[in-house]
Amino acid sequence: MTKKNLLTDNFRNKIIELVFDPEYFPLTLEEFTKSLKLRGKAKKSAPAFFEAMLANGELLKNKQGRLLPGKTDRFLKGTLHVFKSGDGIVETSQGEVFIEESLMKTALDGDEIAVDLTRGSQRADADRKYGRVIQILTRSKRVLTGTVQMAGKSFRVMPMDGSANRLFRVTDLKGASVGDRVVIRFDSWDTGSSQPLAEIIEVIGSHQDPALDTLVAVRHFGLPEEFQSAVIKEAEKSAALLDEPGERADFRDKFVFTIDPATARDFDDAISLETNADGKRILGVHIADVSHFVKMGGELDKEAERRGNTVYLPDMVIPMLPEHISNGLCSLRPDEDKLTFSVLLTVDEHGVVEKAEFTKSIIRSRLRLTYEEVLSILDPPEKPLESVSELNRETIDLIRKISRLAQQFRKKRFEALALDLDVPDYEVIVDKNGVILEIKKQSSDFSHQLIEECMVAANEAVDREISKRGFKTLRRIHEAPSPKRIEDLKTALGEMGMKVGDLSKRPNLVKFLASIKGHPLEYFLTVTVLKSMKRAEYSPNPVGHFGLAKTFYAHFTSPIR
């Protein structure tokens, strides 16, 4: 780049920086030229330069001839994600744009911002886009959690989320002490100040008290703890709907049962297995009919939409629906009549679903089993669980039959080149004081696979039927990874000395995942592959599920969660 072009670019950047400053007062061209202290050739060429910026929308001019910031739609827009280093990235329509800390102005993590592309500093990476914050379009969090710190003779709050990238000034501790965790409300950030100003609105307590960790998480993520009275009233009134089941298939004479974690309180799915006159197996997947009690547009429906999902914390559950619904009317507890929606799959001896039927139903669960109990049946330990030893032979045989069916489903999925991206979950066990007692690793064993495969089969059947009927629905989709992500994955694995071939071809990707089973770095390598994938999301578009190797897939199951 020539010296002239560089000066021109710097001049343009200076103008944009000035007009997008929150404290900028509109100036005329002459006033602007004077404020920039231009002389000689620069002063003479300034009018033409301003006219060019006006022509391409970088600047606007009002009726009084004063210069205004241009329309932000000519800049890239996106959400700012800040690293602990202070730098950040913005995901825009042109890909990721890297923002150095010195060019963030007063933007905070999570803010929606307008970005102008730059060349980056001397440490810039040639393969990366660089930019600077032009304008903050929308502030993200007005309320944050953090820890009080001493800074000289004044006080600051360090946000719990390190990516918030700033200390917040507070002028009134509201009774808090240094080291206390507090909730703050972001007030303002003057461009002349190095730190934003905030007000403490709640003092939670000492950062050394683990009993407060859950409350901190609730405040940090803005989780709603209580239901409004109108929501509770509607939930209580909905009990009467149990006596108005409407037309339903009566499955109360069938052996239906549930399998859930030992700590579960809401049971929204149950299963059954029978053999028809032709010797074909009929798998029943029975899901709590939440829609019977939650009417579209009602208070319960609006509250569920606002919350989005149930949140499970180590010592607390924040339900999407009031417990009267989630743990009562719609929980498929044993020996209680419950309203459900059932999917009945007729399956041949090879595990192929020949027919799918769908019906509103009423069931009466006979048995509540835990994953531990089911696993002790499918993979018996030396000393069987006492609760399992009390089960009759017919029940044990039934569970083994369903497991064999589930393994047939699973085998067919992997024959269709589904990706084995299973990584273990971890359950944190705490005592009443919030102290961690144990961290349990939860792997995908036979008991979990039994339920997983039955649910996948039901979800696939439901989406297939909806698509066949031409109805619109919200599907669970997982798009194929982009070629660049796959190429980056191949490069990363190659740097670790692994020969992987062309991973854009599904068979090669499946082969690689199989090859790392039992590898000392299996977890790390699986997560590396996972990060190269696109995220699964909800969408009406019928693009299928790449990871599961399914053309049809919806989340018909888990309506309470």
What does this structure look like?
The protein is of the alpha+beta class and 561 residues long. It folds into five domains: 3-70, Orthogonal Bundle (Arc Repressor Mutant, subunit A), CATH 1.10.10; 73-138, OB fold (Dihydrolipoamide Acetyltransferase, E2P); 143-220, Beta Barrel (OB fold (Dihydrolipoamide Acetyltransferase, E2P)), CATH 2.40.50; 229-466, no CATH class; 481-533, no CATH class. It is 30% helix and 27% strand. The chain has 14 helices and 26 strands. It has a five-stranded mixed beta barrel. Strand 10 (154-159) and strand 11 (168-170) form a beta hairpin. Helix 10 packs across helix 11 and helix 12 runs antiparallel to helix 14 (522-532). The longest helix is centred in the C-terminal third of the chain and has 24 residues, at 446-469. It starts with a helix and ends in a 22-residue tail after the last strand. Mean pLDDT is 89; it is low at 1-7.
Strand content: 25-35%
Provide the structure class.
alpha+beta
Distance between the termini: 57 Å
Q: Which regions contain 5 or more consecutive residues with pLDDT less than 50?
A: 1-7
User: How many E-type strands?
Assistant: 26
**What radius of gyration results from the CA coordinates?**
30 Å
Output mean pLDDT. Answer: 89
Helix content: 25-40%
What is the 3D shape?
elongated
Strand order of the largest sheet: 4-5-6-8-7
| Biggest β-sheet strands, sense, barrel | 5 strands, mixed, barrel
Instruction: Determine the number of helices (DSSP H or I, runs of at least 4 residues).
Output: 14
Q: Please indicate the count of domains.
A: 5
